[in-house]
Design a protein that fits this description.
Shape: globular
Strand content: 25-35%
Structural class: alpha+beta
Radius of gyration: 26 Å
Oligomer: single chain
Number of domains: 4
CATH topology of the largest domain: Rossmann fold
Number of helices: 14
CATH architecture of the largest domain: 3-Layer(aba) Sandwich
Strand order of the largest sheet: 32-33-35-34-36-37-38-39
CATH superfamily of the largest domain: Alpha/Beta hydrolase fold, catalytic domain
């Protein structure tokens, strides 16, 4: 078979590249179909072509650097051989994959409707109707009292928009102040390059507007003032568009490409809130309907903040003085006179402003509290959750409401929208959909001690009738100050039904214990998170409840750095490893100045042009630290259109693993043709990906 692939590659040299690729992949597919009916014991092996890479004053030899070039003949041969090898096993697993896919699809609700929120003269809500892949956004006028088919209007039907596209993601949408038009952004490739469209809600008629690839964010501030963002490698421009004349011009220029620019409307609709943020600082401007800009606080290292605008005042959630944030207020006419609220201990995760006071969501060691601060200064505790449950503020657009809406959730608890009366404290559940029957699960929070004495939180979930020696799937992230989800995940049910436990480790570098937790696992402290993960897996292996021979781990995107770095250090701990859209070649990627995320990423991981940072990166980078040893089974999933992490990283990593692996455990790669860094947009395709990963886990010896 390798000879056939080589001959195909030689033929490709004689014709143009585009035609060559077409012939090559068509022929490779035919070979794949034939090969699937025959045993294939040949493990793929990429040729080693040592190349001297002179970067940042250092020379390193990389045997697989050529795999970054998809048009290279050896790359094409290797890619095809890996796909053929993997597909053979994927086909053997097909009955199990179908069984799991069926279980997952049966868990999808036939129909679902969200609670409505009032925005201006309309109530808006989202529904997923029976048989549909995507949601439909509806509205009805506030003055209509009868809710029915005749009284509701479609704002956007994402199913209609997605028709004809193998991938579709709605970025954002904003309705014009008169309620007649809707502007929206859409991604039809998965590469996170969005198109801007403007449509009349009642007729579907569209305006001709600039079709330049834009960012997802947009906001419609005034009749002739629609704001959107255009990104480039050297920064971003915020554009002001008159959609009725198609005239547009830049109103704000961000010259630092490490900053992401986001747009939204203030709750009263009087201001555009323009937020520029990178991993280490924030800067926010308010833009009024006349286009006048007002800076809230200039960017400075380490200062992050959010704002709310209400009745002539700006409320700020800021870590300028306190690492875990505090809330201040100032009059729009007196922007330098900040007055601070006295708040309880813990990290302020979110806040909202009402006419009668301020609501704060505070988390301390995985316990959430909701506080209400009245205008008089009096504070009261609205509710407190047990450690295994979480809450988040929901949409609360009405400044004059005395009800605050939030969502309660947990590993064992599906999202439940509730609201509490700020005056009486009365709590009620807002249930629109039939109560989903969730199998009984045991969920708990534990803390384990890392090697430096730090207490690390973890949650795990299991069936109640299994007490000892369970296989376990462990998930970790630990980067960018982002908190791993602690919500109920339907997709875990097939594993739980098969007596698996599921554990999440919240290592340093994430955001679970506030900004200081992130700082403790960033830059030259990144090894803290890796060690936390290894220590957590050892803790599980020593537990009476877990089978130490059946510990499977999963790392997605930046979480793959933690997992793959641990894999190089302690491969014997793992029965199998799942890496989805993984970040593996840190030095190579961070050295690529043409990558749009590089300026922001070096603030999280380090700058390889700095000698100390480079030395530290090389000490744990998953690609550089591969060594001759036995590696466990691995399943890689990558997406060709991924604009954040290239497919080449996984190809290089897998080739180097194979070249150094002293064991015989199987390695697989699954390549997605459509969909970007966040995978397929189709719900059934998402479930097929999960089923493939679970089949990998369940077939390990």
């Amino acid at each position: 078979m390798n000879e056939i692939l080589t001959n195909l590659a030689l033929i490709a040299q004689l014709i143009d590249v585009k035609q060559a690729l077409s012939i090559f992949y068509s022929a490779a597919l035919i070979i794949l179909l034939v090969a699937c009916t025959q045993p294939n014991d040949v493990v793929p092996s990429a040729p080693e072509r040592p190349a001297a890479l002179d970067r940042f004053g250092q020379s390193r030899i990389d045997e697989f650097n050529y795999l970054e070039d998809i048009n290279d003949i050896d790359t094409q041969n290797y890619l095809a051989s890996e796909q053929i090898f993997s597909q053979e096993s994927f086909d053997i697993w097909l009955p199990l994959r179908r069984e799991i896919s069926k279980e997952l699809n049966q868990l999808l609700p036939a129909a679902k409707r969200d609670n409505s929120v009032q925005l201006g003269s309309y109530y808006y809500w989202r529904e997923v109707v029976s048989g549909a892949q995507y949601p439909i956004f509806f509205r009805r006028a506030v003055e209509r009292e009868i809710v029915g088919a005749a009284s509701k209007q479609i704002v956007l039907d994402v199913n209609e928009l997605a028709d004809g596209h193998s991938y579709y993601a709605l970025g954002d949408f904003s309705v014009s102040p008169d309620g007649r038009w809707v502007a929206f952004t859409e991604d039809t490739t998965g590469a996170e390059h969005f198109n801007l469209r403007v449509r009349e809600i009642s007729t579907g008629r569209e305006l001709s507007v600039p079709t330049t690839l834009v960012d997802a964010s947009l906001a419609w501030l005034a009749h002739n003032s629609l704001y959107y963002v255009v990104n480039s490698l050297d920064g971003s421009n915020v554009m002001r568009l008159n959609p009725f004349s198609a005239e547009s011009y830049s109103v704000y220029r961000e010259d630092d490409p490490s900053f992401n620019v986001d747009l939204r409307l203030s709750r009263d609709g009087n201001f555009l809130v323009l937020t520029a943020r990178n991993p280490v600082s924030t800067e926010i401007l308010l833009v009024d309907k006349a286009g006048i800009q007002k800076m809230i606080s200039p960017r400075r290292m380490g200062h992050h903040y959010q704002v709310r605008v209400a009745e002539g005042h700006v409320y700020i959630l800021s870590n300028l003085r306190q690492p875990d944030f505090e809330v201040a207020r100032f009059d729009l006419k007196l922007p330098d006179q900040w007055s601070y609220f006295e708040t309880p201990p813990g990290t302020i995760k979110d806040f909202e402003v009402f006419a009668d006071g301020l609501v704060l969501l505070i988390e301390e060691r995985f316990e959430f509290s909701l506080f209400f601060y009245r205008a008089s200064g009096e504070a009261s505790l609205l509710l407190k959750t047990p450690p295994i449950e979480s809450i988040r503020l929901s949409s609360n657009p009405n400044l004059y409401s005395n009800l605050v809406r939030f969502v309660r959730y947990g590993p064992h608890l599906s999202d439940q929208t509730e609201e509490i009366d700020l005056i009486t404290g009365e709590l009620r559940v807002l249930a629109l959909n039939p109560k989903r029957k969730i199998p009984s699960r045991i969920a708990r929070l534990e803390w384990y001690e890392a090697r430096d004495g730090t207490q690390i939180p973890m949650t795990w979930l299991q069936a109640p009738d299994r007490k000892t020696k369970m296989p376990v799937l462990v998930t970790v992230y630990g980067a960018y100050g982002i908190s791993q989800t602690r919500s109920y995940q339907l997709e875990l049910q097939p594993l739980l039904d098969r007596d698996f436990a599921v554990a999440n480790l919240y290592v340093r570098g994430g955001g679970e214990l506030g900004p200081r937790w992130h700082e403790a696992g960033r830059l030259q402290l990144k090894m803290n998170g890796i060690n936390d993960f290894i220590d957590g897996v050892e803790y599980l292996a020593a537990s009476e409840a877990i089978d130490p021979r059946k510990i499977f781990v999963r790392g997605v995107s930046a979480g793959a750095v933690i997992v793959a770095a641990a894999l190089n250090r302690r491969p014997e701990l793992f029965a199998g490893v799942i890496l989805r859209y993984p970040f593996l070649d840190l030095v190579g990627t961070l050295a690529d100045q043409s990558a749009s995320l590089t300026p922001a990423d070096i603030l999280e991981w380090g700058n390889p042009s700095d000698g100390a940072d480079l030395k530290y990166l090389l000490s744990y980078s998953p690609y550089e630290q591969i060594k001759s040893q036995k590696y466990p089974s691995v399943m890689l999933t990558v997406a060709k259109p991924d604009s954040r992490v290239s497919m080449a990283e996984s190809l290089k990593w897998l080739a180097k693993i194979r070249a150094n692996d002293l064991g015989s455990a199987e390695k697989f790669i699954h390549i997605i043709e459509t969909g970007g860094h966040f995978g397929p947009s189709d719900q059934y395709e998402k479930k097929q990906l999960v089923a493939l990963e679970y089949a990998f886990v369940l077939t390990r010896p």
